[in-house]
Write a structure and sequence with these properties.
Blueprint: H1 3-10, E1 21-24, E2 31-34, E3 52-53, E4 69-71, H2 77-89, H3 100-105, E5 108-143, E6 146-176, H4 181-188, E7 196-198, E8 208-210, H5 216-238, E9 243-271, E10 277-283, E11 289-291, H6 297-327, H7 331-348, H8 352-363
Parallel strand pairs: 4-9, 5-8
Antiparallel strand pairs: 1-2, 1-3, 2-8, 4-7, 5-6, 5-9, 9-10, 10-11
Length: about 375
């Protein structure tokens, strides 16, 4: 590589904006560009390792260009606070680190990449098209000592074979630029892509950007699935049909144009008993929250120990009252029986915190 090419190779990061830094996560292998004030923090995606600085020339990611489009954050602050507060308060015996102020203090805006592709589609297709039609029949029923005739409408579908040729331009068909895209959207919901705007470096102020880990050629298979669904729908409309099934096509694609778009996500985390980060995700447009709730077995044991001490005190008191009943007055036996019942009742609750924490950590689904 000549000196000019090496200089260009080392300066690609400057296209994102002034002083941006390249860092990676050794746990999830995520690669990020971020402003200097965000360097070396905990990974905003997996939370299990600190980000480490990478050399932009030696560790160049699979795709380095800035995005062309961005979907900005629009979730209201009060909605974010409300959802975080509900999540933090939804769990009895929560770890000490799981509280509203901690989660809000660690809230980090993150942009996730998404591919959009424009493509010219040509080819032949065939499918069965369904057309709704109504059948009117009559039903006899015996009511109130009399036969009555009821008119019944039933909708049925008539299926007809159709074939055709297609030549159409399709724009902005989405394909994931991250392997984790489907998992994230499955947790917090899909993003509203129509709220896109042209990218400007100022849109990234205070945010971390996750770079694509899938190049366009790798994402093309997903784009084909989206395109096939769009083509099938268009063919259905062209036939003025109501349904379609058994769609087959032999497409030819031309003039592919790929665009990178950034999607808004908030992430935060809390530390469980094992000091392991539990990630909390919030949709950057709707504020919808997803997080795994982990109860604190340490707090459960502490409460169980306190109950055991109280039980021991009641047990000693019961024995003392029995002794008084033998030596002083028989009325002490009645009090000994009452305190004995309390001893059994209180002692039986000692296991409840342990069972609750075990149940939550084993069976509870994410919030």
């Amino acid at each position: 590589m000549n000196s000019e090419a090496k200089r260009v190779e080392e300066k690609w990061l400057s296209a994102w904006g002034e002083n941006w830094v390249l860092e990676g996560c050794a746990n999830c292998n995520g690669i990020f560009v971020l402003p200097p004030e965000k360097v070396s923090q905990r990974c905003p995606i997996c939370g299990q390792a600190a980000l480490a600085e990478m050399n932009p020339a030696d560790n160049r990611p699979i795709y380095t260009q800035p995005p062309e489009l961005v979907v900005r954050f629009r979730a209201q602050e009060n909605a974010l606070r409300s959802n975080v507060a509900k999540f933090a308060r939804s769990l009895w015996l929560a770890p000490t680190d799981l509280n509203e102020n901690t989660l809000l203090g660690r809230l980090q805006p993150v942009y996730l990449p998404m591919w959009l592709v424009d493509v010219q589609v040509q080819g032949e297709w065939q499918a069965e098209m369904g057309f709704d039609y109504e059948i009117v029949s009559h039903r006899e029923q015996y009511r109130q000592n009399n036969w009555q005739t009821e008119r019944v409408k039933e909708t049925r579908v008539r299926w007809e074979q159709r074939v055709g040729r297609l030549n159409r331009q399709y724009d902005n068909r989405a394909a994931p630029a991250l392997e984790e895209q489907a998992e994230v959207e499955g947790k917090i919901g899909r993003f509203q892509l129509q709220e896109q705007k042209p990218f400007h470096p100022g849109d990234l102020t205070g945010a971390i950007v996750h770079l694509p880990n899938r190049p366009p050629e790798d994402a093309w298979n997903d784009a084909r699935v989206v395109l096939q669904s769009s083509v099938a729908q268009d063919c259905c409309e062209a036939c003025e049909a109501d349904h379609t099934r058994g769609f087959k096509w032999s497409p030819h694609f031309a003039n592919q144009q790929w665009t990178q778009m950034l999607l808004p996500l908030y992430t935060s985390y809390y530390l469980d008993d094992d000091n392991r980060a539990q990630m909390v995700l919030l949709h950057g447009q709707t504020g919808q929250l997803h997080g795994v709730r982990r109860a604190s077995m340490k707090r459960a044991r502490r409460i169980a120990a306190i109950i055991a001490v109280v039980t021991a005190v009641f047990l000693v008191l019961t024995l003392a009252l029995i002794l008084l009943g033998y030596t002083v007055t028989e009325e002490a036996f009645a009090w000994a029986g009452l305190v004995g019942v309390l001893t059994v009742g209180v002692g039986g609750t000692a296991v409840l915190p342990l069972l609750y924490a075990w149940y939550v950590n084993t069976f509870q689904s994410p919030k």
